[in-house]
Amino acid sequence: xxxxxxxxxxxxxxxxxxxxxxxxxxxxxxxxxxxxxxxxxxxxxxxxxxxxxxxxxxxxxxxxxxxxxxxxxxxxxxxxxxxxxxxxxxxxxxxxxxxxxxxxxxxxxxxxxxxxxxxxxxxxxxxxxxxxxxxxxxxxxxxxxxxxxxxxxxxxxxxxxxxxxxxxxxxxxxxxxxxxxxxxxxxx
Length: 188
Hints:
The protein is of the alpha+beta class and 188 residues long. The chain contains four helices and ten strands, in the order αβββββββαβββαα.
């Protein structure tokens, strides 16, 4: 049974029609009529989103850089890893290094891509590349926020972040995914 399920992976639907609803600086919303691989015809609202990165930046003594930032989608200040959109022509590693410095002042070194996650495949193509980085607390540069953001950053014991994820205090999908991936495949 499992092999039959896996044979379905990657099959694409046919976009029968598409109507643009909204175009903004970060995403575009369209309504699509789709002929699915199993021959159903469905109508869906789809958000096409710019790619992003999230950075799990660790110190040698296992502290992690975290941000508190207002997030309109949940209408509150949220705790999460530093993250942001890729600029045109940027690779995820260059974007991760830039975003970490812009938001926190920390200079990343030894960056490596852990994985890329899809935030919600049911309605968006948004992909977030999760990057592992090392920092030294004495190596900082100037912060350079985007004109519409203000971020409070700090260091937290990595174990404290894990506990906050376990208790639901931290619910950011990219933060939970980055820490989970790190625990499963990177942590020594």
